[in-house]
Design a protein that fits this description.
The complex is a heterodimer. By secondary structure, chain A is an all-alpha fold. Chain A is built from two helices and no strands. The N and C termini of chain A lie far apart (about 60 Å). Residues about 45-55 of chain A have low confidence and may be disordered. Chain B is mainly alpha-helical. Chain B has helices at about 5-25, 30-35, 40-55, 55-70, 70-80, 80-95, 105-110, 115-130, 130-145, 150-200, 200-205, 220-230, 240-245, 250-280, 290-300, 305-340, 345-365, 375-395, 405-430, 455-475, 480-485; strands at about 430, 435-445, 445-450. In chain B, strands 1-2-3 form a three-stranded antiparallel beta sheet, with helices on one face. In chain B, helix 4 (about 55-70) runs parallel beside helix 14, helix 10 crosses helix 11 (about 200-205) and helix 19 (about 405-430) packs antiparallel against helix 20. The termini of chain B are far apart. The chains are: A mainly alpha, B mainly alpha. The interface of A and B includes residues 25, 46 and 50 of A.
């Protein structure tokens, strides 16, 4: 097996396994994030939003 | 295409719009729309950064170079980005998180004033036009489904536009996660089947020229320098900046970028190998179409549909993010500071949405003009780097007092030089059959030199530096500096 072939197999494993692992991590975060957004909805008052704009 | 594959593609497209609509009610103002209320966690950032920054320009552009030249695509065209992103992760992101910025042009605006902010906003909006991903969708749907190019572009871009307008960065980030896993997993599976379909790695080595396995290939040294130089765009990459500002904290950004570099390197390598496999298989197509043509030939029913959805995901994750950046640059960094600094938030939000729509239309027109993905990518990177790199880096790290003229002269000099160079090669150069690009042959100290359109950065960056130095030496003190002195 040449080193290029080895790199290819390693890349495929990183790509497939890595993306699935990060996605699973995201699912855990998403639930927490969604709950936080439900608890703290964005302000309805446009003036308050303007003050929040920063510089 | 088999009906099952078609159903998978349609389900994917519908799912994206539904997700965007579900998140639309979370948008309360511009900050929610543009930086997701600074709520992005590490995992969301990894998915969003990887899928956004890697569009079809990389998938088709990288495989285009690999199909023509081999491994040089990864070593010279793609690898320099990892080094620059590493610098961005450890140095630039840390500095940016110290301030309450929402966009990259705002960084320049705080240091040099409205003029520089406006010039960089224009360059950012231009760079962010996702024309290559739009071109890619047109090509993909044409090759895979037989949909005419223009209709393919309209369908793909239309769906991305819909959920971006509805849910802003939060919808973009959430859809990015699905797109991320789809694009990575399907590309990995496609690579296994494609390499086996060609007869394995040994068969590829036998069928391809030796130069395909040389890391530096046969490209001219100057062009390799330009490829490396275009990676500097990662230091002033507006989608990076947007995600840095949207993250919950700096630690999340750092970890996300480090994981991202590993995934990007793997993604690039697989794209490169697929481009080479297409050449070894004797795929008779335009270089930029070679990867898709090969993969569609080797994948079975079901997986082919997943792959098309994966490639669509690659394109749409880029289109949505960059349309958002372009719309935000026009409304928040151009219109608001120049025309109406007291613009209410609700109108700013509406204007940003219109900016997103306008950017989509301009991208569509440009997608029909450019022929080569690599040329288009280098041109847009050059415009951004030429206008923004020097003033932004000086704004972040300069210990001297800022002068408004320095930022403005630097941006304008870089931008004007880049555009003038491209125009000159377009007007005075000709099409080169060997490399398939525009070349302008000029006499230089008795020697004939071939200037590629891609060399613009080699002239624009020094021009930007000179402009900065001249503006700093000759310009008056900036508003920021006068305020600081008066405060003392």
């Amino acid at each position: 097996m040449s080193r290029w072939e080895l790199y290819t197999w390693v890349s495929i494993v990183v790509l497939v396994a890595g993306s699935i692992a990060v996605f699973a991590w995201f699912l855990r975060d998403a639930l927490r994030l969604y709950r936080r957004l439900e608890k703290h909805p964005p302000p309805a008052d446009p003036a308050a939003r303007s003050r929040d704009l920063g510089p | 295409m088999h009906p099952l594959d078609l159903a998978i593609v349609l389900a994917y497209l519908a799912g994206m719009v539904v997700l965007g609509a579900a998140l639309a009610r979370k948008i309360g103002g511009f900050r929610d729309f543009f930086v997701a209320g600074r709520s992005l966690t590490t995992a969301l950032l990894v998915c969003s950064l990887v899928s956004t920054y890697y569009g079809l320009d990389v998938l088709f552009g990288g495989s285009e170079v690999a199909y023509q030249e081999g491994l040089v695509a990864w070593f010279a065209y793609l690898r320099p980005y990892y080094l620059v992103i590493l610098v961005a992760a450890f140095v630039v992101a840390r500095r940016l998180r110290r301030h309450d910025f929402l966009s990259m042009p705002e960084v320049a605006g705080r240091r040099y004033g409205t003029g520089t902010r406006a010039v960089i906003a224009v360059a950012t909006a231009f760079y962010a036009l996702p024309l290559m991903s739009m071109m890619g969708i047109g090509v993909l749907l044409d090759v895979a489904l037989g949909v005419p190019f223009l209709w393919g572009v309209l369908i793909g871009a239309g769906v991305a536009l819909a959920y971006t307008l509805l849910g802003g960065l939060l919808a973009v980030a959430f859809t990015d996660t699905l797109q991320f896993v789809l694009m990575c997993a399907t590309l990995g599976l496609a690579a296994i089947l494609a390499v086996q379909g060609v007869g394995g790695f040994d068969a590829m080595e036998q069928r391809l020229p030796d130069t395909f396995f040389q890391p530096w290939g046969t490209y001219p040294t100057w062009l390799l320098l330009v490829f490396a130089g275009s990676a500097l765009s990662a230091l002033v990459e507006p989608a990076f900046y947007q995600r840095i500002f949207a993250a919950v904290d700096y630690r999340s950004v750092l970890i996300a970028l480090l994981i991202g570099i590993v995934l990007w390197a793997a993604f690039d390598w697989v794209v490169t190998i697929l481009g080479m496999a297409a050449r070894a298989a004797g795929v008779d197509a335009e270089p930029r179409y070679a990867l898709v043509t090969l993969v569609m030939e080797v994948l079975p029913v079901g997986l082919a549909g997943l792959f098309v959805a994966g490639v669509l995901a690659t394109a749409m994750s880029t289109i949505d993010s960059y349309l958002l950046v372009a719309g935000g640059s026009l409304a928040y960094d151009l219109y608001r500071p120049l025309v109406r600094p007291d613009l209410p938030d609700a109108r700013l939000l509406r204007l940003t949405r219109w900016g997103v729509v306008g950017s989509a239309l301009v991208s569509l027109l440009l997608a029909l003009y450019f022929q080569s993905m690599v040329t288009a990518w280098i041109f847009m990177s050059t415009v951004l780097v030429a206008a923004a790199l020097v003033p932004i880096m000086a704004a972040l790290y300069g210990t001297w007092r800022p002068r408004a003229a320095a930022g403005l002269a630097s941006s304008l000099a870089g931008l004007a030089t880049a555009l003038a160079f491209f125009l000159a090669v377009e007007l005075f150069g000709g099409h080169d059959e060997e490399w398939g690009v525009r070349l302008w042959h000029v006499e230089f100290f008795g020697r004939e030199v071939g200037l590629w359109q891609e060399y613009a950065l080699l002239f624009a960056l020094p021009a930007s530096l000179l402009g900065y130095a001249a503006g700093h030496l000759l310009g008056r003190r900036s508003v920021v500096e006068r305020d600081a002195v008066e405060a003392r």
